[in-house]
Amino acid sequence: MTALIVGGDRLGSIPQVLNERGIENYIHWTGRKKGMRNKTIPTNIDMIIVLYDFIEHNLTNIIKKEAKSMEVPCIFAKRAGSDLAMKLDVCKYCRRCCT
């Protein structure tokens, strides 16, 4: 399973949280610069994780819209492993695909 993580300059304990839930691969975009708005979301991802306390505001709206059109689950969390773990545990989409 592959996740696109948008936001956060450093991921800290987030890769460990993802690994514990069966998400082995991830792509990380910092999401701080305007140029990120023009990036294309990869088609080989299974979910998008937006770290909303470290992201350019307009990019959040673009990611949300693209996730919906691609029918990919999109999770919004703080850049804290504990918050992301909680959001992944309650996500109805993730319960189907994460262990």
Specify the oligomeric state. Answer: single chain
If you compute it from the alpha carbons, what radius of gyration comes out, rounded to the nearest whole angstrom?
Answer: 12 Å
Number of self-contained structural domains: 1
Provide the succession of SSEs: EHEEHEHH
The main β sheet shows up as: 4 strands, parallel
CATH architecture classification name? 3-Layer(aba) Sandwich
Pfam families: DUF2325 (PF10087)
Organism: Crassaminicella indica
InterPro entries: UCP020408
Protein name: DUF2325 domain-containing protein
Q: What does this protein structure show overall?
A:
This protein has one domain (2-97): 3-Layer(aba) Sandwich (Rossmann fold), CATH 3.40.50. Strands 2-1-3-4 form a 4-stranded parallel β-sheet, with helices on both faces. The relative contact order is 0.24. The protein has 4 helices and 4 strands, in the order βαββαβαα. It has 99 residues and is an alpha/beta fold. 35% of the residues lie in helices and 19% in strands. The chain is globular, with a radius of gyration of 12 Å. The protein has helices at residues 14-20, 57-70, 81-90, 94-97, and strands at 2-6, 25-29, 47-51, 74-77. α1 packs parallel to α3 (81-90). InterPro entries: UCP020408. Belongs to the UPF0751 family. This is DUF2325 domain-containing protein.
